[in-house]
Specification:
Strand order of the largest sheet: 1-2
Number of helices: 15
Low-confidence stretches: none
Order of helices and strands: HHHHHHHHHHHEHHHEH
Distance between the termini: 27 Å
Radius of gyration: 19 Å
Shape: globular
Structural class: mainly alpha
Helix content: 55-70%
């Protein structure tokens, strides 16, 4: 199976065309939501706005990670150097993620998806699992055990000479929030990262490679899954079109803002016919992740 079996060369050329304007807009949306979440909590501090701010921040922490992912593929901006520079400083630095290091890791995932050499295999290898097992995983996430474990690992590797940009970002974020009259809101970033972000990441991982019919196959319709996310799922769980994952594995050079168009074209051509490669929202992802084999 080749992508050219379903899309013409002209269509592929149009789909892989990068737009600096749309790339900058994508960054603006992510940072606008982060700023809006803090502003909401500071302007109207009450339990509802604080919970909503935490949920948005956690989703945009993942959103920044997805921007690193897209820039690592050089699939966001037209210029390779702009992808690497902007992807690192405006997406990787705030979450202490090296774009160059991530690229090496992630390209191995694309090359070996679903096989024993896949560096992401450990996250999804045992699915489907029982409902009780999945509940236990989510409880570890919601209670902060997963987030604290990951933060401890990250801090154990902290070196000032290497990680000073991340430290500078957080000092700057605290200063900006303090000047806005809400120094306390800085803690929402960490509440989001420790208690909500791990839940979102787990859902994303399950939706991408945990609910597939044949993880070791070379066909992305068998080793990868796409989730048709509703608007609120895109806001809180699947930022930046990350849920179009079959499409991304089929042609990693397609910018994220063109993945919905690619999905529609492939659907119209029968690309998914006869394949169990589509989840209908994240409730369906959970259902598929806990279904028992026939």
């Amino acid at each position: 199976m080749k992508v050219s079996d379903y899309l013409s060369s002209g269509e592929l050329q149009a789909l892989t065309k990068r737009s600096d304007a749309r790339a900058w807009f994508t960054f603006a949306v992510n940072w606008g939501l982060i700023a809006g979440a803090f502003a909401l909590a500071i302007a109207w501090p009450n339990p509802l706005t604080i919970v909503l701010a935490v949920l948005i921040l956690a989703a945009r922490q993942l959103g920044l990670g997805i921007l690193v992912h897209d820039c690592a593929h050089h699939a966001l901006f037209r210029d390779r150097r702009t992808n690497e520079t902007i992807g690192q400083w405006l997406a990787g630095t705030p979450i202490n993620l090296s774009l160059a290091g991530y690229r090496t890791y992630h390209l191995a995932h694309h090359r070996y998806a679903g096989t024993p050499q896949d560096p992401d295999l450990g996250f999804v290898a045992n699915y489907p699992i029982s409902r009780a097992s999945l509940r236990r995983k989510f409880m570890r996430d919601i209670t902060g055990r997963t987030g604290l474990r990951d933060l401890t690992r990250s801090l154990s590797r902290f070196r000032l000479a290497k990680d000073w940009p991340w430290l500078a970002f957080h000092l700057g974020l605290f200063a900006v929030l303090a000047l806005a009259g809400g120094w306390w809101a800085y803690g929402l970033w960490w509440v989001a990262q420790l208690f909500v972000y791990p839940v979102i990441v787990r859902l994303r991982q399950i939706g991408e490679h945990g609910v597939v019919p044949d993880r070791g196959s070379l066909d992305p319709r068998l080793n990868t899954s796409t989730t048709l996310a509703r608007w609120w799922e895109r806001l809180f769980i699947a930022p930046n079109h990350v849920h179009y994952h079959v499409e991304h594995h089929l042609a990693a050079g397609v910018p994220p803002y063109r993945l919905p168009q690619m999905h529609r074209l492939l659907s119209a051509r029968g690309f998914y016919d006869g394949h169990d490669a589509i989840s209908r929202g994240y409730a369906d992802v959970i259902r598929r992740a806990t279904r028992q084999p026939a």
